[in-house]
Amino acid sequence: MFSRTTQFIPQCTQVRGMATLKEIRVRLKSVTNIQKITKSMKMVSAAKYARAEKDLKVARPYGLGAKAFYEQAEIKGDSTSPNQLLVAVTSDRGLCGGVHSNVCKAIKVILNEMENTADAKLILIGDKSKAMLSRLYAKNIIMSFNDIGKKSPSFGDATLVAQNILDSDYKFDNARMFYNVFKSVISYKTTEQQIHLKESIMKSEQFSVYDSVDDETVTNYNEFQLASLVYFAMKESATSEQSSRMTAMEGATKNAGEMIDKLTLTFNRTRQAVITRELIEIISGASALE
Length: 290
Description:
Elements: H1 21-73, E1 84-89, H2 99-113, E2 121-125, H3 127-137, E3 141-145, H4 155-166, E4 174-184, E5 187-195, H5 198-203, H6 215-289
């Protein structure tokens, strides 16, 4: 009788529903790299936030002064007029929570309430607002500005935006600007600010208090206060963006750390299961050969 001895070769098979060690190792490495990136972005945002908050203290008197003039002169806009101009103040950069989407949502609510949206026009500051609003309201956009957010906004940038608004061919009856007002490191508020032209200022009843004011003076002041308001809005939005990005990256770093702990635990359990299974197969094979 001839007997044939069969050599037992242990095989490491994958259990259903359980990832292999290689897959877990690859994912663990990728999550660790993402955590390094988010941690670095948090540190960069913290430095930019400190600089933006310092610059905001200098820029706030510009906007508050222009708003105080509107309040004292009792200048009001007509929100029911058909020709509406809506200005969105955002930036080109993302990864900062709902800073940009909240501004776009506020504009969408106004456009949805209007009977005829064709009469409303949009001026978008930043590529983020352009990307969100151009899907539904591309025909309403009359101009947009980019390269916003890479550097700290300056009064020259605000002057360029204000001058383009005044020189636009669109004759609007009411204009509103939407931006985020910085409250604290973890909070901001989406705000609506009226923009008034020279004609609205001249029609105000309280404006007669200012004696000997000629037309050229009103024109120059209107250009300056519009640039001041835009500068104020851009600074407020930039500070809100940096604080929100810092908070978002801190949360992302924390979530990545929790995921690394879970993946490490899964990796150790899977490795131990593989080692135990191989030992059992070796012992079973040795027992079968005896």
